[in-house]
Write a structure and sequence with these properties.
The chain has two domains: 176 residues, Alpha-Beta Complex (tt1808, chain A), CATH 3.90.1570; 38 residues, no CATH class. Helices cover 23% and strands 24% of the residues. It contains five helices and twelve strands.
Amino acid sequence: MNAFKPGSPLPLANPLLPTMYDLPSENPKEPGLPDQFHDWQPQLLTQTFMPPTVPIEQVLTAADLNIYYDPNNPKYYKRPDWFAVVSVPRFVEGGRLSYVRWQEGRSPLVVVELLSPNTIEEDQGLTLRGQQPPSKWEVYEQLLQVPYYVLFNRVDDMLQIFRLEAGLYREQSESRLWIEELQIGLGMWRGRFADWERQWLRWYDSEGRWIPSDPERAELAEQRAREAEQWAEALAQKLKEAGIDPDSL
């Protein structure tokens, strides 16, 4: 595992290749803008992606961030709805403008695509292959070789999980994804997030418990603080009843 320090600059695999500072981070001609679900679902994925086997400073998650994947065609990129990479620095100096595979040295471990009518065929690998630039499916499977590829259709709450086996994606029959090397899993959870009650994708731990989101962690911290305060008040009252001044202790 690479010992990156938070905020450190990225290593350059080849000084002749462009870096994220040389490559465009957005394309104003790209059709379609994310809807609210495409904004909130990646937030929940990021907030609950806490693998216990990797230091948090070496875990990168991102949504709608360009991935440049081909040094032979350095302007080719894909933009997943959400992805995670381990053993790379979580933060780099100035923040990432994009994710440049030949500069970072590692491919994403998992990619999640939220299906929409404009992209569903490409996301599912149904478009014509062998074209240039290649489709998302070809890039994730053949070029980046992403081990886990997840598709979620929020219209019918359908989850498809693909694992890379012998260089090809195979759809798994299980309704949840378990990543053994990270001791973390992904499943569908029905609950309220961003004031919206529905089915969401979120990560769970080795005990099958849903990993808390940021609001849930804050609420839990407040609850523990209240309980500690109540315990202290009860103890002080018992000491007073016993004739002991708690302030003298």
